[in-house]
Design brief:
- This protein has 226 residues and is of the alpha/beta class.
- It folds into two domains: 132 residues, Glutaredoxin (3-Layer(aba) Sandwich); 84 residues, Glutaredoxin (3-Layer(aba) Sandwich).
- Helix content is 40%, strand content 22%.
- It contains eight helices and ten strands.
- Strand 7, helix 7 and strand 8 form a beta-alpha-beta unit.
- The radius of gyration is 23 Å and the shape is elongated.
- Keywords: Disulfide bond, Redox-active center, Signal.
- Pfam families: Thioredoxin.
- Belongs to the protein disulfide isomerase family.
């Protein structure tokens, strides 16, 4: 066989192999099966990916699996998709060791390749609500009472919520960049007197802090620095 034909054959096989791998890593709403051959590729392919390190014999893992299956298509359908994946850590021990897995199931959330421990809820609907925080805008701009109510309801009870009423957007943006992983941030640009009564402030600008899980609410009047 001539050299050009050999090169062409090798390139064709390489291209086909890469195409097959690309198909495996599509965010198609299914939980991806990862191992040592495709883990790094998956982490680099998706901006947001939650990985379940499990063991087949683990009872908690078996109960978690259908919850992930249910959440996967919802998360894949977000404007900023979140991919769910799993690794048999009992089989791929080197991969588990590399990521400091010492119990099952262990969930790790990778944002732009950077891992963090996932300590949120594991029921499908709550897991979706929790993870939406990480792909939400840094600051939500709210232009009506109904928009404020919708924002608070969608935020859920897992993270503190900050609403700047009549507050310079730059102030909130600076906070949001620093604490994006820990809280929700918004600026209310248009609101009624009813909103002022509901959130218990009597002048603007003001910053209302809510922590729904503790049913706590605080108001700060500044000074605020942009």
């Amino acid at each position: 066989m001539r050299l050009p034909m050999i090169i062409l054959l090798v390139l064709t096989i390489w291209k086909a192999g890469n195409g097959s791998r690309a198909n495996e890593l599509k965010a198609d709403g299914k939980v991806l099966e990862l191992d040592e051959s495709n883990f790094d590729s998956a982490i680099s392919s998706f901006d947001y990916i939650l990985v379940d390190f499990y063991a087949p014999w683990c009872g908690h893992c078996k109960r978690l699996s259908p919850q992930l299956d249910e959440a996967a298509p919802v998360l894949a359908g977000l404007n900023e998709p979140i991919v769910l994946a799993k690794v048999n850590a009992d089989k791929f021990t080197r991969l588990a060791s590399k990521h400091d897995i010492d119990g099952y199931p262990t969930l790790k959330f990778f944002m732009h390749g950077v891992p963090m421990e996932y300590n949120g809820p594991r029921k499908a609907d709550l897991l979706v609500q929790y993870l939406k925080k990480f792909v939400a805008p840094d600051v939500s701009i709210l232009s009506s009472d109904s928009a404020i109510n919708d924002f608070v309801e969608a935020a859920g009870t897992f993270f503190p919520i900050y609403i700047g009423f009549g507050l310079n957007e730059t102030v909130i943006s600076n906070l949001a960049v620093k604490y994006k992983k820990k809280a929700w941030f918004s600026v209310a640009k248009d609101f009624s007197d009813d909103a002022m009564v509901l959130y218990d402030f009597d002048k603007v600008p003001s910053l209302v802090a809510l922590h729904p899980s503790y049913k706590q609410q605080s108001v700060f009047y500044g000074p605020f620095e942009g």
